[in-house]
Amino acid sequence: MIYDNLEFVNVRELTECPGRPGLRLDRYPKAVREKILTKGPVSFSNGCEIRFQADAPVVLYLMADRGREGEVAIYRGDYLDYTARLPVGVVTPLVIQPPLMMERVGMDKLPMRRFSNHVCRVLCNAFDSVVHYCGVEAYGSLTPPDPANVPDKTLCCYGSSITHGAWAIGHHNSYVQTCARELGVDVWNLGLSGGCKCEPEVADFLSELPWDYLTMELGVNMRQEFTPETFAQRAGYLVDTVCQKRPKEPKFLITIFPNGIRREDPAITELEARNERAFNQTLRELASQYADKNLTLVEGSSVLTDFTWLATDLLHPSDTGQILMGHTLAGILKQHL
Length: 337
Fold this sequence. Notes:
five-stranded antiparallel sheet
């Protein structure tokens, strides 16, 4: 999406919010947001990016709307420039200018990986934060990135809060971002904390997005609320929809990552453990059924291979876990891309 000569990446809509300045960065369009069962996290902005090219300083105005304070990580190409906090309710100016050392050495003389060093990237980095775009001032030329300066392939990731990078100190450490770096591709993160319940509207939406590769991490947030039969119906519709509409693009179905199912109520613990086993078996059967549609099964245990990669809630990976999972998943995906 191009707005004010800026490219908004992993942003489907810029939403006006009455009584609040600026425009909210939304990863899902309104028609889909209204159908998602878990409402709050649908507007979390971590994983959204604002990109541009400029030959002079730029002042970008952002605001964290609610939740905890926001944070952005500013990159020049693949090089981290700095991070900045966004206090809740305060329109914050971010001064972005050519990095001194990179200018001295020469932008085009430095190694490049996914992005040209001429591309400025502002990544929404804090989980549980909603970010508003409130304007830009440029003191020279300001343009969206040249398509030749960004990756030409995009990985789209749908999943739970684990996919969305919950618990990681910064979104740039999430397994999704790490995997994309390793693969040399762009990334859209459509994770939903407490959500990812395979709503049919989400399935239709995912099937229409112009991604090149798709991962689907399913089931962990549905263990208590849905029976195995209902999970099979909802996951089946999602898989069938993306496979029928996008049979040629590589798609990856990820079973539930290893975790410690430990709750005070033994009945709930047993229910979730039983459903987790049934859900994973459903995903294996779906992967086999749609193998001819370029769908590949990835066992969650082959991605999170060390239980100590988890944080103390025994569900979400730590930063170390997220980074190592990203490297591991990239190695698996490379075998099929």
